[in-house]
Amino acid sequence: MNTRARAIVFDTIDQVSVKDFPLSECASDELVCETFYTFVSPGTELRVLGGHYSKPEDFPLVPGYSSVGRVVELGDAVKGYRVGDIVSCRNPKPLVGVNAMWGGQSSIQVHRTSGEDRPVILPDGCNPLDYVIAEVASISLRGVIAAMPKREETAVVIGQGMIGAFSAAWLGDAGCRVIVCDVDEGRLEVARQRGAFAAVNLKDSDGMERLDALLGGGADIVIESSGVTAGVEAAYKLIRKKPQAYGSDYKVEPIQFYGGDWARLVMQANYIEPVSINPFSFFPGEGVTVLTPMDRGIEERYRSVEAIRAGRLNAKDFIDQVVPYHEAAEGYRQLQQHDAISVLYTWK
């Protein structure tokens, strides 16, 4: 077995290379997996590359947390996994001699077989390319599950990066009427092709008015995935507000009057800048359910795999550029310059 790995390395801010490192030892409860494909999570990885999620002493580092590969070796205590299994992986054991934020952009990896980071076994005979989106898609799935969408509800997704794009897909799969918004017309056109009810450019002078007309009273669910203050401020304006009995006969209804029927706001992004709000003006109508899902669990990972297997989620709809791993610097450049929406690296 090859005991060295090729890895994409962020040498320092905005500097990308490909280097060799020794593979970490495979312990008795671990397995070794050779990589077929890795999928870039653009928001996270570009912020790491830009120094926003990383400190100078973190570099050099191996980024990434989404790969698909084949099991080539098992530790003596491993149960349930088999050599030859095709698996979806996240957060491997770090390579020797380099830091990791999360270390998934490498040609061969060591993984634990217990805990949330364990590899997810893919269906027999599957095409690995079909499942390369599963890890990132499952992050969005967790946020959508938290919002408990109902059929025919109206949902707005702010931001059409990968997390927002997958959120829109999951909401559509749940039977919602999905409206997306962004400031990039290319992303909006792709969202229309994926089946969004409407796609609105927030740079348009009448963008918010257009959304107001489409919503007819506000959205039952708003997913904020832009990661910027302007997106949060837009979410406040778009969320459905409960009617108030304000008038000549002012009356305060019992607070439980709306129990179980609050609109839901899902904060599905990380924010570099602090966001300051006044809750009493931000949530008029006495209430909204605010959800802040983090990461994804083994349940969401397997649910994503099943949606792909059943044909409800198609990887081809979300893969923009396929790039050989040794051209990684060009792949990240395309993402930084908005020449690509998503990038997939091939390792074979």
Gap from first CA to last CA: 16 Å
How many H/I helical runs?
9
Radius of gyration (CA) equals 22 Å
Could you say which overall geometry the principal axes of the C-alpha atoms support? globular
Kindly give the count of domains.
2
What fold name stands as the CATH topology of the largest domain? Quinone Oxidoreductase, Chain A, domain 1
- Poorly predicted runs are none
The total beta strand count reads 17
So what's the CATH class of the largest domain? Alpha Beta
Strand content: 15-25%
CATH superfamily of the largest domain: Medium-chain alcohol dehydrogenases, catalytic domain
User: What's the rounded overall pLDDT mean?
Assistant: 92
**What is the string of helix and strand elements?**
EEEHEEEEEEHEHEHEHEHEHEHEHE
Class by helix and strand content? Answer: alpha/beta
> Which architecture name of the largest domain does CATH use?
Alpha-Beta Complex
Helical proportion, percent range:
25-40%
What does this molecule look like?
The chain is α/β, with parallel strands linked by helices. It has two domains: 157 residues, Alpha-Beta Complex (Quinone Oxidoreductase, Chain A, domain 1), CATH 3.90.180.10; 148 residues, 3-Layer(aba) Sandwich (Rossmann fold). It has nine helices and 17 strands. The strands form four sheets. Strands 3, 5, 6, 8, 9, 16 and 17 form a seven-stranded mixed beta sheet that branches. The protein has a six-stranded parallel beta sheet with strand order 12-11-10-13-14-15, sandwiched between helices. Strand 14, helix 7 and strand 15 form a beta-alpha-beta unit. The longest helix is centred in the middle third of the chain and has 14 residues. The chain starts with a strand and ends with a strand. The model has no long low-confidence stretch (mean pLDDT 92).
